[in-house]
Every structure is written in structure tokens, then in C-alpha cells.
Amino acid sequence: MADNRALYEDALNKGHSFSWDQRWEEAIAEFEKAIKEIPNAPAPYAGLGMAYFELNKLDKALHNYKLAARYSRGDLIYLRQVADVQERLGRLSEAGQTYLAIGEIHLRKNQIEDALDNWQRAVRVEPGLLGAHQRLASVYQKRGATRNAIREYLAIARILQGQGDIDKALKTCQVALKLDPRNPDILTAIELIQRGDEAFDDDDEEFTTETRKESSLSETVKQIADVLEEQTAEWRAAQANEEDENSNPVEDARRLALEQLAEEIFDDADDDSAFEDLGNGMTKLERDALVSQALSFQKTGKTAEAISCYESAVQSGLESTAARFNLGLLYQDSLRFDDAIKQFTITLQDENYRLGSHFALGESYRAKGQMNKAVEHFITVLKIVDLGTVDHSQADRLIELYENLSETLLSAGEPERATGFANALVDFLTSKGWEDKVKEARTRLDALSGGQTMILADVLEAGSQKVLEALYLSNEYMRRELYNSAAEEAYLAIKLSPHYLPAHIQLAELLALQGLRENASQKFSIVGDLYRARGDMGGAITVYEKSLQANTLDLGTRSRLIALLKQHGEIDRALEHYAAMGDAYYQLAQVDKARDTYAEALKLAPRGSANKNWKARFLRLTGDIYVQRFEWKRALAIFTELYREDPQDERITMTLIDLFYKMNQAGDALKVLDQYLVQLARSGRGNKVIGILEDMVAQRPGDSGIVHRLARLFIQQKRIGDTIRILDGLADAQVEQGQTAQAKTTISQILKLNPPNAAKYKQLLSQL
After folding, report:
1. pLDDT at 267 over 60
2. Are 558 and 580 in contact (CB under 8 A)?
3. Which end of the chain, N or C, is more open, meaning fewer C-beta atoms within 10 Å of its C-beta?
């Protein structure tokens, strides 16, 4: 199997290489070799699909893409290719079913936007696909997109009517009618179905004007259809105009300003207030007339006249953000950028105009050649937009990333990079459907992030959409353990944008997965250094931690990470890494450095969380080192302090007792022992006492203090044999140590217990 895998990988790599050079016939030969080695792997079939597609052999392309989808268990990448080729071959019903299936997969992953997109494709290629219409109607209704939901319900009713299921068709129309009880389209559809005429859907090609002329519908129905078609055309034209107006944040704010000013002018007011002097020789009626004139001039392109009217209205005391925003736009059109900047600086205080004002300020400063200020405002625009795409929990990190980006672009001394960023941002936010592109970009970034927070600026910083596409493919290949293919895509991303750090992170992740942990750690560490140089400390921290996951013994990286965590106030995390660093030094047999690390951590410990008990943790680690190095005095000082902090900790207590004995302080040892045994009894854990004493007697059978304490407990429990055994051991130890008097006392105690071999003990006593 190992040989098969090697031959497979070699053939697959050659196939990809030939594909890259557009040598399709040679690529096909290599992919077929790979299939012979491992017949159920999806990648070679995908390669064949692409090669046959490029050779315009669409039937073969479809066959291989289907196999790739089957062996990958429904991978979305391959399913999309299947649907695309089916559509090109004119197999529209099959394509519709495939798009429907792709939508269902996205739905299970809670990727609603992608699901919607595929269901819309499904009904585009196969208008009679009931399941896709039902899914669309359900989602639109939940989202409050009433017009779209009604359109889908009417399409469902038409399909059901065509299938002869009139009752269900009418019930579907009733569901739609609940969304909009006066909707003429629904009422007409119900009327047509009840009369037995064919219901229609304006969006379907089969119901165009020409088709209707040739149909057998009555003249009345034709008239209704024409009216509805005309209304629909008007509505679509209005929607198209609205989309054009929404082409960027400034236009959005401009439309809002025009609407608000119109409302203010027609605001109901009694006659007295209309003619009331505003204190500057002008009445409210006169000022409203000025604003009305300004709006009229603005709409007809008479910029100078509009400016004059707005200026007069503002000088008369008009406090209107809408008027000032419009005035700023007119100043921009007249190339009076300083005047425009003054107005936009005021209007950005209003939340409704903040986004448009920052964008307009960016444009004004860019026109003046003040790129730094322009970039500052453009970054703010992107930050505001981006904050609307992420969870609240990510907001702080996202704001930090934009602050770092701002510092990098404004202080790195790279004017070309700042200019390129500004141009890319303006192109992005002035393109049609930019709001949908923002959502799409966020979905792609989240898929690439690997748990990190990425920002929309990454789309612009990458320099090309191809970079993100390459990283997305690399991620997919990596998920399927196709590491060579994943590496190719990662290298492509780096080649396209050498300074885009997420591409380098992707490559490091691949190295780690392939077992090249030291190489991965080194790569992560370099990327972390670059983040730190750019001022993105949060990014540096994240990547340094990835480096240490790959190589726990990289002490240089851990030291830099600790410094950053302390600088960021992440004290608990810093202390965790101090503990890991000490452990690494210990593993490397550099015990002195481990001890010094713990000493450094102890200085920081008071700033850590109280519930983490950092001081005790590092004191114990330091004390353990002293114990292992036989530095009893230093160890005793540390464990005495630990005992004061937590006298109930059994390990600390027993270690302290042992250290007292090692320092020939048996009295202190027994004092601590008695306190601990009493504590156990009072806390309902008296059953542990005998076990502790037995362990201690086993270690020190000649210590009379411990033996006598255990003997008393044995006697209380009438364990005479055990009592004689431990006293016998004590007597032997005393005899060996020349403690004759103590030995005689111990033997006398044994005789009082009436041992079975009393004669032996009496003889020993007489000898002593």
C-alpha cells in the first residue's frame, strides 16, 4: 500500500504539473496512472474532469467530475463542477437537481447565503423544480423578504396547478396571501386557478409576451397579464435604479439626506410658526423655501446655485446634518475640498451619516494628495462595515487588527502600499453589489481563518482575489489530507502576494501536519516576528503560540511570547508559559535555568488571578528542585511558607515533615504531624490517619514518636499483633543505635501485651 501511495502521489503531481502547463493529453495519462494505483481517490478524477473540460470533451469531463464527487462523498467543489458541465451540456433538469443538492449541503452547514445562491441557480436552469422553490420561499419568508417569498409561492402554485393538484395550488396562494392580503398578483393567481385558467409567473421565459399572444387564454386574462407585466417592469426598473444609488456608502448617505430634507420641508407646521422670525430677518417658511430650491438645483445639476441656497439656509441657523452633508458633496463636486472636509467633519458625528462621511473625507483628502489622512478615514470605513459582519465576541480583536493596519500603513514609510490599499478599497466599496461582496468575503475569510479573526482588509491586502482562492483550495486539500496539492496552492498564494502573512501561516500549518514540526515552528516564529514588527501584537501572540504547539522546546519563541503577553496584560497566559518554559529547561537538564524561570514568574504571580494560586504553584516547583538537589534548608523555607498558606494540602504537609526530619528537627516534624492528624479527624477523614502513620513507620521504623502514635491507635483497635510488630521493629532499631535504655522500655511495653513468645523478649531484656 505504501508503494501504491508513492506511485499515486508521483503521478498526481505530474498530472497537476502538466495541467498547469496546459499539456492536457499528458495530464490525462498521468491522472489515469494515479487511478490505477488508488482507484477510489477523488483528486485524479477531478484532474481528468478539468483536462477533458479544457479539451471540450464535456461528456467525459462530466463523467469524471461525478466520480470525483462520489469518492469525495459529495465534496462541494466537485458538485459545483458537475452542475456547471451539466448546464453546458444542456442537461438542465440534471443541473437543477445538482444545484438543489448543493444548496441542501450548505443549509446543513448553516451557510444560508450559499444555499440561497444555489437554489436560485436551480430554478434558473429548471423552473419547474418544486423543491428549490419551496426552499427559497421558506428562507425568504423567515427573512422578511416578502416580495421574493410571494414570487416563489406563486411559482409553486403554478407548478402544482400544472401537476393537476388544484387544492394544493390554492392553499399555496393562501399562504402567500397571508404575507400581503392586498397583493394583486396573488389575487389574480387565485382567480385564474379557480376559473381553471393557467396561472403564470412573470419571471419565467415560457410566459413572455410573445408566448402569451400565442396562448389560448381569454382576452381578459391577456389584459391582466399585460398590466401585471408592466407593473413588474416598473418595479424592476425602480429596483435597478435603487441598486445604482446604493453603489457606495456616500451615495447611500446622499439618498438619506435628500429624503430627510424633503420630510423636513413638508413637515406639518401651523401658520404662526411658519411666519415666525428666526432671529436673523428670515422666517421658517423662507428658509424652507431655500432648502427646497437647493434640492431642486442639486437634482438638476446646478451646483453653484445649490451651494448658495444651502449656505444661506445654514447661515440662517438651519441645524440639519442632511443639509450639511449635501453641502459637503456639492463642495466636493466644485473641487472645494477644504470646505467639504469642514462639513463632513461635522456630519460624521451623526451615526446615520458616519459611514458616508468617513468615506467622503477619505475621497477629499485623497484628492488633496494627503494620502495618510485619506487612508485613516478609509480604514475607519472598512472597520465600520466589517464590525457588522462578525460576532460581538470578535469585535475587540477586529478593532485591534484595524488599529494595527492603520499604524502599519501610516508609519511604515511605504506610500505605494498605502496608495494601493486606498485604491483597492474605493474600487471594492464602489462596485455594484458591494454589500453582498462584503458578506461573501466574510464567509470566505471565516473559512480560511482557522479560528483566528481575519478582517476585510485581508481581501485588499492580499492584492488579488486569486490569493484567497488559492488559500481556500489549499485549505480544502489540507482537510482531505492531500498535502502536496495543498502545498502547491499555498506556494501559489505566496508567489502572488509574498507579503501576505496568512499565506505563510497556511504553509506552516501544512509543515506541522506533515510531521515537519521544527520547520513549522521556525516558519511560525518568523511570521510572529513580522506581526510584531508591524505592531500587530495580537497576531504575533497567536502565531507564537502556534509555533510552540509545533515545538514546545523553542525557548526563544516562548520568551518573546511571554514578553508580549505581559505587555498586553495577559498575565495568566504569561504565567502559564513561564511554567511551560521552566518545564522545558528541566527536560533539557538545565535545572538552574528552570529555577531562575520560576523565580521570575514569582515576581509576576501577584498580578495573576487569585483563583489560579500562582504563587503556591511556582513556590512548589521551586521547592521540588531544591529537594531533588538535596538543598534541604532552602527547600524547608519554601515548604514552610507553602504550609502556612495551605495546611490542609497533604503533599505539602508530608514533604515539610520529611524535610524537618532531614534537618534533624524531629520535634517540629511531630508537631506538624499532630496538627495534620487532628485536622483529618475533625474534617471526617480520620480513616486516613492509620495509613499515613503506617507509611511513615515503614520509612522510619526506629522513630519512637511515630511508632508510639501508631501503636496507640492499634491498641485502640485491638490490633495487638500489629502493635507488637511495630514495637519489635522499634526495639531492634534502638539496639542497633546503642539506645539501650530506650530499647529496654520498648521491650517492657511489648511484654505488657502478652506476646506469644514472651520468653524470647524476657531473655533479650535480661541480656540488655
Report:
1. no
2. yes
3. N
Q: What is the CA radius of gyration of the chain?
A: 41
Q: Name which residue leads in pLDDT, 91 or 72.
A: 91
User: Is the Cβ–Cβ distance between 544 and 417 less than 8 Å?
Assistant: no
Confidence of residue 456 (pLDDT cuts 50, 70, 90): low
Of 540 and 121, more confident: 121
Residue-by-residue DSSP string for 493-539: HHHH-TT-HHHHHHHHHHHHHTT-HHHHHHHHHHHHHHHHHTT-HHH
Q: How confident is the model at residue 575 (pLDDT cuts 50, 70, 90)?
A: confident
Q: How far is CA 232 from CA 128, 140, 174, 221, 236, in A?
A: 21, 19, 21, 16, 6
Across the range 231-255, mean pLDDT stands at: 58
Give residue 481's pLDDT.
Answer: 83
Q: Cα separation of 619 and 582, whole Å?
A: 12
Q: Look at residue 13 and tell me whether its pLDDT is greater than 80.
A: yes
- 610 pLDDT more than 70: yes
The lowest-confidence range among 159-163, 234-238, 731-735 is 234-238
337-356 burial, b at 16+ Cβ within 10 Å, e below that, comes to bebbbebbebbbebeebbbb
Of the candidates 504, 476, 479, which has an alpha carbon nearest to the alpha carbon of residue 491?
504
pLDDT tops 60 at residue 461: no
Q: What cell numbers appear for 754 in the block? A: 502478652
CB 312 within 8 A of CB 324: no
d(Cα 575, Cα 559) in Å, to the nearest integer? 11
Predicted local confidence at residue 655, as pLDDT: 83
- Residue listed under C-alpha cell 495568566: 572
Give the Cβ contact number of residue 506 at 10 Å: 24
Q: What SS3 class is residue 169?
A: helix
Helices (H), 89-195: 92-108, 112-125, 130-143, 146-162, 166-179, 184-195
Q: What does each C-alpha distance from 271 to 263, 268, 274, 285 come to in angstroms?
A: 18, 10, 5, 9
- Determine the pLDDT at residue 734: 77
Percentages of the chain per state (helix, strand, coil), in multiples of 5: 80, 0, 20
- 277 SS3 class: strand
Rounded to an integer, what distance in angstroms lies between the CA atom of residue 416 and that of residue 419? Answer: 5
Give the pLDDT of residue 143.
76
Pick the closest to residue 516 from 494, 483, 490 (CA basis): 483
Residue 84 has pLDDT above 70, yes or no: yes
Q: Any idea which residue has 477510489 for its cell?
A: 40
| φ and ψ of 632, to 5 deg | -60, -40
Which pLDDT score, from 0 to 100, does residue 401 have? 65
Residues 31, 134: Cα–Cα separation, whole Å: 41
At residue 528, what are phi and psi to the nearest 5 degrees? -60, -40
CA distances from 658 to 281, 708, 730 (A): 98, 18, 19
Distance from C-alpha of 563 to C-alpha of 573, rounded to nearest angstrom: 11
Phi-psi region at 279: left, alpha or beta (left = phi > 0; alpha = psi -120 to 50): left
pLDDT band at 211 (very low <50, low <70, confident <90, very high): very low
Largest CA distance in the chain: 138
Alpha-carbon distance of 122 to 86, in angstroms, equals 12
- Cα 520 from chain centroid? 22
Question: How distant, in Å, are the alpha carbons of 282, 306, 307, 308 from that of 312?
Answer: 10, 10, 9, 6
- The torsion angle over the Cα atoms of residues 677, 679, 685 and 686, rounded to 10 degrees, is 40
pLDDT at 262 over 80: no
Which residues make Cβ contacts (< 8 Å) with residue 625, sequence separation at least 6? 586, 591, 594, 595, 598
The pTM for the full model equals: 0.46
